[in-house]
Amino acid sequence: MEVVSSSHSCLAFHQTPTSARRFLGTGVGPRHTKLTRPRKSAVLCVGRASNPGDSGKLHVSRSFDVSDVDAALQGISKKAGQIEKVAIPGLPEGPDSSQISTGLWEWRPKLTVYYEKSGTKNSKAPAVLFLPGFGVGTFHFEKQLMDLGRDYKVWTMDFLGQGMSLPCEDPAPKAMAGEKDEESYWGFGQDSQPWADELVYSVDLWRDQVQHFIEEVIGEPVYIVGNSLGGFVALYLAASSPHLVKGVTLLNATPFWGFLPNPARSPRLSKIFPWAGTFPLPSVVRKLTETVWQKISDPRSIQKILRQVYADHSTNVDKVFSRIIETTEHPAAAASFASIMFAPMGQISFQEALSR
Q: Which residues form the AB hydrolase-1 domain (predicted)?
């Protein structure tokens, strides 16, 4: 297995993603469904197709265009022992695009994964899986799918608890009528639903999610391209399931994830901490989450963050900004964020994964 790492700002990447498991389908594409604020009580939920002959797959597609970008690369010059860093423009649109289709995969009860794919007609071509960073999703790799789908089979997905892979039901609903109001966040009740008893949005969960997605949806070993958090998950999976990964490309990969001890690796130490990202959220965590979430989900805060992560401030990030805002408006977003922040570390570290 090959590992390629890049720590440069990938400006070209940021313009704007069947087996025993079930596929869910509907006539409405989920990426066209706007998620609204909790007070509007509108949640993305997609049901199974009712037609007996339907394969269960979601066939929603759109056409995009990408043209040759060789001209954009001409500004890169190599010198002895030195590579000049230049800003590469975003992939332009053109007539030779590859079609993108969207899908939903029910991995576990109530845990449905949103994904996008392109170039699946290239049956003999290698399969490439893009994994996004924290707080974004498939939309971050939209132009990569348009371009690479012409020659390869390309996939991308939203991690559970993020993007459009947030739950369609409240994992810990408020029981009393007086507790409920139009501004209620999901996951703030006293008891969790049976399907969410052991749920925690951890790096271990995401590794397992990607592993089963490769096995059950893609159906063959893949090359993985991981950005930030996606890079950590990509390397983690490659170290634990090398038979599924042909190679890894790391884009600004985060070298750590989580702060609390992993219960499998440090069972005694993990028992010291009373809570580690499960549902329901403890009362003190609920109060803290409400305060923090109001700040970080503010559009002005998101704009400031985007300015910091894009080296070229002239880059048009309107679409990225709007998609992030949509996610923050989901009623499950705040509790999911808390679960992610307090989830334990993985069973192996980034350095250990690199050494395998």
A: 128-279
Which residues touch 132 (CB under 8 Å, ≥6 apart)?
17, 138, 140, 141, 156, 158, 159, 162, 163, 227, 228, 229, 230
Per DSSP (E only), the strands in 80-208 are 82-83, 100-108, 111-118, 127-131, 153-157
Q: How far apart are CA 126 and CA 128, in angstroms?
A: 7
Residue with tokens 């490659």: 238
Mean pLDDT of 69-97: 55
CA dist., res. 212 & res. 218, Å (int): 9
Tell me which of 92-106, 128-142, 208-222 is least confident.
92-106
Asked if residues 131 and 226 have their Cβ atoms less than 8 Å apart, the reply is yes
Domains observed in the chain: 2-67+85-355 (3.40.50)
Strands 222-227 and 127-131 come out as parallel
Q: What pLDDT, in 10s, does the model give residues 30-79?
A: 443 333 334 333 344 443 443 444 433 333 333 333 344 444 445 444 44
Peptide bond into 280 cis (omega under 30): yes
Give residue 279's pLDDT. Answer: 96
pLDDT at 22 over 70: no
Residue type, 174: K
Rounded to 10 degrees, what is the CA torsion of 132, 137, 138, 142?
-90
User: Which pTM value belongs to this model?
Assistant: 0.75
Q: For tokens 């269960």, what's the residue? A: 56
CA dihedral 28, 185, 232, 206 (to 10 degrees): -60
**Pairing between β-strand 22-24 and β-strand 100-108 as defined by DSSP bridges:** antiparallel
